[in-house]
Design brief:
This protein is of the alpha/beta class. 28% of the residues lie in helices and 23% in strands. The protein has a 7-stranded mixed sheet, with helices on both faces. A two-stranded antiparallel sheet has the order 2-3.
């Protein structure tokens, strides 16, 4: 018999890894070039980067509440605002989060995932009138998600093919500035603040 086990991993952004500001005054040309190269190597998305990308800290005490058993498993009982949450494995937790958020009166949107069974959201007590499903977002799903962030506090984003580093950074900045929650179905294009996954376990 197989059962699904829920795994939740929080990843509060590291505060280390920041390159200290160095004055170039008094350095030789070679030393200045060396210092500048070190700074450039730490820029997120550059090939050969040796430092982790600098990220705004996420306050895990400020959450979008998720009721029920899933909420009990999440830090502070909900999804941290201004954060990227990766949800992978079976779709049960994802549908449960949509149901809990909409039942609490939150607007939500799903970008992609054309085969997502939204009927299950209603069966879990969710409000489908508060779910906008853009199953076919076109050639620039990042832009669609960015526009939605102006009025929707929780967005599920499916980008199986990945996205450009500049597009990722722009979308992440909007998530932070709007105190929204971005739930991604793949971790191949950004580093999430929180991971929610399911694995099959043999009983």
């Amino acid at each position: 018999m197989f059962d699904d086990a829920l795994s939740v991993v929080s990843d509060e952004p590291p505060r280390a890894g920041r390159i200290a500001d160095q004055s170039l005054v008094g350095l030789s040309k070679a030393e200045k070039l060396s210092a500048l190269r070190a700074r450039m190597a730490a820029i997120d998305g550059r090939v050969g980067a040796t430092e982790p990308p600098l990220r705004a800290a996420v306050d895990f005490s400020r959450v979008l509440p998720i009721a029920g058993g899933l909420g009990d498993a999440l830090p502070e009982g909900g999804l941290p605002r201004g954060a990227v949450v990766a949800c992978f494995g079976c779709k049960g937790p994802l549908l449960g989060m949509l149901a809990a958020a909409t039942a609490a009166g939150e607007l939500t949107a799903v970008v992609g995932l054309p085969s997502l069974g939204l009927l299950a959201v209603a069966e879990m007590g969710g409000d489908l009138s508060r779910v906008a499903h853009i199953a076919a977002p076109g050639p620039d799903p990042l832009e669609v998600a960015a526009v939605l962030l102006d009025g929707v506090p929780m967005i599920v984003f499916d980008a199986p093919g990945g996205a450009s580093p500049s597009g990722m950074r722009a979308l992440l900045a909007r998530v932070r500035s709007h105190d929204a929650v971005l739930i991604v179905t793949s971790t191949n294009w950004t580093r999430p603040d929180l991971e929610i996954g399911t694995v099959n376990t043999t009983v």
